[in-house]
Write a structure and sequence with these properties.
Structural class: alpha/beta
Number of domains: 3
Radius of gyration: 22 Å
Number of helices: 6
Strand content: over 45%
Length: 240
């Protein structure tokens, strides 16, 4: 927080979590700016709305659980199993708020929360689609599905060569979240043999001859597939 002449400014943070705060905690705040996400309890919504805001990405209001329930918040860039939604050790009155970029590595067989509020970007197994359709109370963002049961998950940035693909005995599903590149030695025959589907959230650079096949394999594409002349890729590699 930065205190200025007219009050306190909260700025330049990825997430502002107001859970556990009271109205008095916000009494001196006059400006919130350059904040990606605000998590605000329902009881604080009116107080928050009185504060000037600039460049705030998303505000998520956290519902008040019933007397027998608890509020569970999962936020950030996380990887979890589908069993997290079952809430086996909790109450059916519990409320789940899940925010950020979330990759779920196994099917959701059961939703054991009274309410589920989701905001952000989510990657689920296709087998979870039906139960999520009836189990999510409120969604702000995107849900992306992959089909194969055990995909290879890559988050960040990476480069894949012919040698990488040749290590796999059976075809794989690739979930790519970030910025990636296929090297010039990866050809169409190898890619058809080793990859069954691609879920892309981000960008993928590859030799131009691979682009049509990558477009076919991309069951979901939230981003760009960028074709590069193989000669240019070799020149870039040589320069490094």
């Amino acid at each position: 927080m930065e205190e200025v002449a007219q009050g306190i400014t909260i700025e330049n943070v990825g997430m502002l979590d107001l859970t556990g705060k009271q109205e008095d905690d916000l009494s001196g705040v006059t400006l919130i700016q350059n904040v990606g996400l605000i998590l605000v309890p329902q009881a604080l919504t009116a107080a928050l709305m009185k504060i000037a805001q600039k460049n705030v990405g998303l505000t998520v209001t956290l519902p008040e659980p019933s007397a027998n329930g608890k509020l569970k918040v999962i936020s950030g860039q996380v990887t979890i199993g589908g069993e997290a939604f079952a809430n086996e050790n909790g109450s059916a009155d519990d409320v789940l708020v899940i925010v950020g970029q979330v990759i779920v590595t196994s099917p959701v067989a059961k939703i054991g929360f009274g309410e589920v509020h989701a905001a952000g970007q989510f990657i689920f197994p296709k087998a979870s689609e039906a139960i999520l359709a009836g189990g999510i109370t409120r969604l702000a963002g995107q849900i992306v599905y992959y089909h194969k049961e055990a995909p290879r998950l890559f988050v960040g940035n990476d480069t894949f060569s012919k040698g990488f693909f040749e290590l796999f005995d059976t075809p794989m599903s690739m979930v790519l979240v970030g910025d990636f590149e296929f090297e010039s030695d990866v050809d169409i025959a190898l890619l058809k043999q080793k990859v069954t589907e691609i879920v892309l959230v981000g960008s993928l650079k590859a030799p131009k001859p691979l682009v049509p096949l990558l477009q076919l394999l991309a069951v979901t594409k939230l981003g760009d597939i960028i074709g590069i002349e193989p000669a240019d890729m070799l020149d870039a590699a040589g320069a490094e």
